[in-house]
Amino acid sequence: MIRVLKLTLPPNHTEAELKQKIASVLGIRTGDILSWKIVKRSIDARKKPDIVFVYQLDVHTDRDLKIVKKKHNPNIVLRQKEERHPLVHGAEKANHRPVIVGFGPAGMFCGYLLAREGYAPLILERGGAVDERTEIVEKFWDTGKLDTECNVQFGEGGAGTFSDGKLNTLVKDSSGRNRKVLEILVEMGADPSILYDNKPHIGTDSLRKIVKNIRSEILRMGGEIRFHAKVSEFEIDGGQIRGVKLADGSLIEAEQVILAIGHSARDTFTVLANSPIAMYQKPFAVGLRIQHPQEMIDRSQYGKDCRYQLPPAPYKLAGKSMDGRGVYSFCMCPGGYVVNASSENGMTAVNGMSYSDRGGKNANSAIIVTVGVEDFGSNDVLAGMYYQQELEKAAYRVGDGKIPVQLFGDYLNNQTSTGFGTFEPAFKGGYKFANLRDVLSTSVGNALAEGIQSFERQIEGFSRYDAILAGVESRTSSPVHIERDKRMESNVKGLYPCGEGAGYAGGITSAAMDGLKVAEEIIRRYAPIS
User: Fold this and answer.
1) How many CB atoms lie within 10 A of CB 171?
2) What is the 3 state secondary structure string of 190-238?
């Protein structure tokens, strides 16, 4: 197999033109190409308006080695076919099937692999199935009536189900789990382009269909999923997990419990903090969502003279405030919406969401500022969680239960806005003009203002007066880290902290990868369920 690197073509090329370019680079005829596939595709807009697609491709001919030797080109290399070794099942016997707490990306992919390998996992999800959940969430956005057990954070698919569905990750992955996650998503209905696009995304509408397909496959392979099954206690004896107790009082015995609870399961964090399970504070970041016209972002990223039909442009920005805090964009949603993502009464949190076509008129992103244990004001293991809650209470208070909103110019002037500027916002959920300075601490609020103003140097118009802010973005990651060893177990044997809620992931893909990683460790140790 020949790996071709850095092959470029204009965005409006045809498949025939791509194949012809491959043949030209290799110095062969198109008929000599037996097969080829795209490994990676990205957009290079550094030399506007001359934008190009940049490809990595795997090409197979009947004389691969000869072609590579003849070309002497560092962008044409011989690549051996990857060998995927099957998982070897362990021999240790378990009396009960594994129990997975949470059916977000970590629990879902952990359950998928365990079910595929014959372990018949039982998955417990406190929220509802995705269709029911969607109805409940949309009712909340319409009426403001919150279901604290089934919402944007809790339910089938986890918080990622109501998001942009971004699948890129910064996790270094030599194991192939990243690719495996993408392959499973394609098998379950995702567009195959996620396998090679540099910044793949699915969109909330497609994700809802895909998670149902994954659920069906887990059930087909012998797993079980229970919705509205909230875990209220962990049965621990002699340093070993013995099972979990549900809110309805029932006890489920288990020797392996996978803790895939997500970053917003604050009542569960409280239960864990009062148990022998080792966990500690962890830094994270908080801030506000900002909206701009998508057309403005496209013009900045692609150039005002761009002549191609390109997807809505993303951006990624990072800087540092004068007092040393990191300030950066997070979870950027091209053509998306800012949504009310609350899960507790009397508290307001926001997130970003896009549909698969990213067809909305606005771009939005969280602009967040790093906070550390020194900001939490306590050594309590849950101090970071309490810090998040205080921010959300303040956002709820200033917004009268709705999303609090302010123009950036008014934020700088410390005054409540009275209307929008030259463009309208895109929200899911009611909103109210407020002064967001009353939500964030002075230090974080000033750092955020500095960051937005500094990003003007990279995107013209980013700090425009009528950029629309909304708050509060407080759920960027888990406020705690639950310890685990090389065997993926916590100090309580048989308890496997997993995914974003435990502090081992930061998005859909990394959480799914961690779910696979934990499942693999259980498979290596234990025999399948007979």
Assistant:
1) 15
2) CCHHHHCECCCECCHHHHHHHHHHHHHHHHHCCCEEEECCCEEEEEEEC
User: Which residues of the chain form CATH 3.50.50.60?
Assistant: 99-280+480-525
Tokens of 471: 């708050």
Closest CA to 214 of 157, 254, 281, 252: 157
Determine the Cα angle at 492 with ends 487 and 494, to 5°. Answer: 55
pLDDT on residue 170:
72
- The pLDDT mean for the chain works out to 96
Q: Which of 298, 456, 431 is nearest to 362 (CA)?
A: 298
Percent of the chain clearing pLDDT 90 (strictly above): 93
Q: How far apart are CA 152 and CA 138, in angstroms?
A: 10
pLDDT band at 168 (very low <50, low <70, confident <90, very high): confident
What CA–CA distance (Å, rounded) separates 64 from 8? Answer: 21
User: Tens of pLDDT along 477-516?
Assistant: 999 999 999 999 999 999 999 999 999 999 999 999 999 9
∠ CA 167-219-137, nearest 5°, is: 55
What 3-state class would DSSP assign to 310?
A: coil
Q: Give the distance, in angstroms, between the CA of residue 393 and the centroid of all CA atoms in the same chain.
A: 25
Domain with CATH 3.30.70.2700 in the chain: 2-78
What is the rounded distance in angstroms from the CA atom of residue 476 to the CA atom of residue 393?
17
Question: How many other CB atoms are found less than 10 A from the CB of residue 412?
Answer: 15
- CATH code assigned to 2-78: 3.30.70.2700
